Amino acid sequence: MKKRRYILLLVLVTLVAPLLVPVGARNLEPAIEQSLASLKPDYLNIGEIKLKRFTQKGNRLTVEMNDEFAYLPFRDELVKQAYDTVRAVLPSKLRHKKLTISAGGYEISRLVPFADPHKRFTVACHRPIVEPVDRLYTPSHGLLNRHIALWQSHGYYFEQSLNRWEWQRARIFGTVEDLFTQSFVMPFLTPMLQNAGAYIFSPRERDTNPHERIADNNDASTYAETTSGKEKWQRGGVGFAHRAEVYTQSQNPFTEGSFRQTKTTTDPHRAIRACWQVPVPERGRYAVYVAYRTVKGSTDDALYTVYHRGGKSQFRVNQTMGGGTWIYLGHFDFDPGEMARVELSNLSREKGRIVTADAVKIGGGYGNIARRMNDKHPACNPAVDYEAQTSGYPRFTEAARYWLQWAGFPESVYSPSRGENDYTDDFKCRGVWVNYLAGGSSVLPDSTGLHVPVDLAFAFHSDAGTTPNDSTIGSLGIYFTGKDRKVYLHDVPRQVSRYLTDLVLSQITDDLHRTCAPQWSRRGMWNKSYFEARVPEVPTMLLELLSHQNLADMRYGLDPRFRFLVARAVYKGILKFIAFQNGFDYVVQPLPVTHLRSEFTGTNRMQLAWRPTTDPLEPTAVPERYIVYTRVGDGAFDAGTLVTDTTWTRTIHPDSIYSFKVTAVNRGGESFPSETLSLCRSSREKGVVVVINAFDRISGPDSFEADSLVGGFDTRKDFGVPYLCDIAFTGEQYEFRRNRPWLDDDNPGFGASRADRETQVIAGNTFDYPALHGRSIVRAGYSFVSTSDEAVAEGLTDLTRYRLADLILGKEKQVTLGNDTGRYDFKTFDPMLRKAIARYCHNGGNLFVSGAYVATDLWDNGTPDPEAQQFANRVLHYTWRTGQASTSGRVQPTPSPFARFNHLDLNYWNTLNATCYAAESPDGIEPCGAGSYTIQRYDDTRIGAGIFYRGDTYSTCVLGYPFETIVSDTERDALMQAILSTFDEAAGSDTPSNNTH
Hints:
The protein has 997 residues and is α+β, with helices and mostly antiparallel strands. Helices cover 21% and strands 27% of the residues. The protein has 5 domains: 2-111, no CATH class; 144-205 and 410-582, Zn-dependent exopeptidases (Aminopeptidase, 3-Layer(aba) Sandwich), CATH 3.40.630; 212-363, Galactose-binding domain-like (Jelly Rolls); 587-674, Immunoglobulin-like; 682-697 and 765-986, Rossmann fold (3-Layer(aba) Sandwich), CATH 3.40.50. The longest helix has 23 residues, at 560-582.
């Protein structure tokens, strides 16, 4: 199709041009300009393409275009089109002459990615800085042994002129750029790159956990050593010590203590260990970092073991690089009161090398760098005694400048201004940090640094700008080739940074066009001297993804589905760039599996099954094998089991709840995990309940626009559903008038938002609710299995095997993605699911349903769905009364024929918190038809919150709020007991069917 359009265009230009352009150079320039401008795709928002000059010299014709023309995504086909279209408008007497078309200082064929295959930025690294010991897969065609420097825009910083801490950007649409870009990088892009085998360096704290604990060899209460014969640890040189609670400008904690060292051994019987341990303050997931020193003769395979709730994880750390800072090992689950323990062994594959031991850090914590008004600052009043102040914010919110100081980097790296300007320090320190990481390595052998062979650097920003209409600003890429700095090491042209920029921008644009945003704009590829692009001595790109000030852009930007798509596109662009630079064929990691389902296959046996997902955007993203992760009881997931089939069986023990999630793997890496399903065989089994997990939704908040006068996001009505958690919300939007201009970051006009939530991590969809429902089911005396709603809808799960079912709808409701009104996801009851449930109920199955939009999604969500309404009325026997039925978060019983509910007062999460997603707009529902009764009402409005229907052949219970949001375990257990027992009574027996398989 593209070739046909090209031929038609060429024929048209050839036929029409002679009529429009007389022979002679004077009138050629407009025709050349017009012909080349016609090559710009409609989605490319780059400004006007202009001809700078057209010259004829002897047998040579030169066409020099402006920089905007260089922003086109040149490929071989487009280069040929450009030359053919220009020749088509030339008079016949000029067409035989040698023609050169250039833009941005380069002949346009040099703008094609990898135009010069002989000049590549190759990086050889046989041992990365961190390598898991028991990796179940090897991403040989991914990013194995690659090191990437990655950062996300700005951060909370100290403003000297105002003597206060503040954001570098304004709070707009419920977020701020300093946090917004983190919502792409931390939960999506970084894990994708890590799953492909890369090690990611970040100049900002990557752990959102507010607790931080330090264990150090200088503190005997947190550190111990073992010896074996003559093998022992000895004092090394200068190292880390946590001497102060607060650090000022020039203090470096990595120069205030010491480290320990010993020689490596290959004999397990002579191995000795260093051990760090600290008490865990609160149950949760913590990042674990280690610190050591790189010395002459350092080992490249120091063996670290992290003991955590899921068991133990081991890593080989290459201590020939990265010494003197915090080196991230991973995130791990810990219980409160237990000792988080990390061990380092001197056991190695090579004898006589040096292994060093310094400190361990778990958790992210709060910022501990204190700043004060600099005496040299013009705003400083000599009569005022300015006190140094910390930010009071979690460290992950702070600017890079402060993390780099806490992480031991020299002052020349984290503060180029020497403490006079934290704003400029923050954006300047990142490029300097990249070079310090790479200093002394093969990438920068003549520089001082940490000896890390960095493959590339990537900065993730969101740009400023708005449009008066509802159109997107789109994406922009920035790189720098330099007027006097044209090459990297080994004479590799800095033009490779343009190739990186082009690949990533093209991947983003193509993927968004094919999935959710067909009109997404691609802006320019600026070759400009931005500090973050100019300073790093490795290929570097700055991405300005979208405008955080533009409503149309942020309708996409606040949606986790969009964040996943963009992050995956960036990861693919980086992968393709590194693959070509280093001469290997790439494979893209698979997408998550779907249609997960579990069942009992015997008294003590179970089976898990799933389907792989085909990626229509990437033919190489094909699963080859799978990893099943298992959690028993209230523990953590294990290290996984590698399987080759799409089914997996195992033996289970009675009364233990088993939970499972599955990932797909190939030579490119590992996918994101599936939802989590659970099951349990109760030793006092009254029956088996099938739990159907239909809560798949992740989305941004409700948005609206009225006549171009007002618009924005109504987070009070529907906050949306974050993926796992939200780390970027500052507070609700309060300025909805579109004509309100930006005056200052403190008064940003349209979109202005509050600041009461910006230090909080807000719970989202964990995809792990069958276990929570299952605990209450087991306590009521029943066994349970679980399945995805897709497996039910497509008949992969046979519901007729179970007389009791629990359908989890959570905050499921039909939503669009951005401005794509042709795409609707997360319908509560789609036709296939309705059909399966109706068949189940009419065959005698009893169904419990709970969800915040269980009725609103059928009656008051865009276009009404009469068939779905009839399903609710006639099969489940409830009807809609109202949405947003309560703001109290409390439910009270109301008299009904079902006595077990008469004394159940409940509290559910209805406001944003870190524990459970909030049901801020629960549904008001009423009974429908004979045998259906209201059993609960919201305590503030007295609107119906739940119904119970008893029919001749089956019963249903429907709640207008999600069961899993009930705050108390005791209240959840009591309600589940009442529901299941009343189902049994409705069946005319104290026990349901004896079908337990």
